[in-house]
Amino acid sequence: MAYSGRARESYQNELANLRDQGLFKEERYIHAPQGAEIEVEFPTGNPPRKVINMCANNYLGLSSHPEVVAAAHAGLDHRGYGMSSVRFICGTQDIHRELENKLTEFLGTEDTLLFPSCMDANAGVFEAVLSEQDVMIADRLVHASIVDGMRLCKAMQDTFKHSDMGHLEEKLVEHQDKRFRMVITDGVFSMDGDIARLDAIVALAEKHDAMVFVDDSHASGFIGKTGRGTHEHCGVVGRMDVITTTLGKALGGASGGCVSGRRELVEMCRQRARPYLFSNTVAPVIVSGALKVLDLISATTERRDKLETNTVYWRKLLTDAGFDIKPGESPIVPVMLYNAKLAQDVARDLFAEGIYVVGFFFPVVAKGQARIRTQLSAAHEKHHLDAAIAAFVKVGKKYGILGLGKNQIIEKYGL
Amino acid sequence: MDELKKAIRDYVVKEYLEEGDDRQVGEDTPLITGGIVDSFSMVSLKRFLERKYSIQIPDAEATPQAFDTVNSIAALVTRFTKG
Predict the structure, then answer these.
(1) How far apart are CA A119 and CA A257, in angstroms?
(2) What is residue A234's predicted lDDT score, i.e. its pLDDT?
(3) Do A159 and B18 lie within an 8 Å CB cutoff?
(4) Of the residues A280, A299, A318, the one at which a domain ends
């Protein structure tokens, strides 16, 4: 046995350090399908209790939608459970290509390639389309999967200050000696909920001959008048070069992702992207569910409209109650607490009040930027949000933070 | 603060602090452990130093520790300009 006592002790110490630093992550077991109300076993071993879920990426409430579940059942019956192969050997069914075509139409691009996840899409895309002669210029707050994907690519890396168009332009000018420049951003930033200025980014990219990449995982299905995403919201449909997105959030929430965009770039991914080449793709049952999701959201904007109404209502409730929230339009609504312990305490007390939220703190967000990230869903009804705000107010009063701004909260609780 | 350290500090302030961020950057201010520069954004600082001082800093030397303060960065640059 090569797993020596020394190795075990070393890992045990490392895990103990994570616990000591308050960075140890624990899963909570959910005893119900995903939805606005779920039954959560927490702490582990306790009987499950019913709570209102305010922390899922189930933006459109489609994770357990009966028509999606029925379509997934039918897919299981007609196309089986697994493929037992990567795509280019014998792992591609007709429905995989059908889903890619529907995503292309939905996103307003030229072609699409499915990946096992959007994490995989981001891990594979840069290496597949860029080389040593090129440069990647990323917003500093892009998702961790983009950072990892950039590290796997031989092109030069650079970054610009979050949503700072002046700084981006400086970088575009600085890198004019490169063969290709690619500007890289999230559509909706997952921790702050703010929306990228894609119209300005595209204009700068066109001025300085650069491609534009957006990860629209927190936007596809609901941002924009018909839910196409950030590019629709910003009026630049058809001008995006690469969009990556996920099926694991609004679009059914199961798993899977894609690279969508210029035909040649997508084809390069089919030839070269390693997570596509060396892993099975999305299972037929998920493809079948996702096809139904696209049918549902292409037929009507009812669900994204309800999400928008819920978002406006929830933001107003929090603001009127005196919470310090990040302003914006997206259904990601961070309640700012700044102090890491305070964020954890407030989240724990809210759970006791029947509201499921999670505190985020360094290193997930910058130091001194601890928060509770609330997320809206079209599955929420007004009574859910009314119950949630009553709990927030009760807990907010306990900690004396209602009506306090950033400096006052920091003064009271420290950083 | 000598000219080298001043150049490093000025670049850090311009490149990494957001508008309205009034944190003071001194010679010993922790940049990476202090959350001013993250390891993802550090590459532009490395490239700035290499261009300005006509040096090559091997990736193995460009560690978060070596880049954590103006003083440690200046020491690194001095080592390579002399070497």
Answers:
(1) 8
(2) 98
(3) no
(4) A299
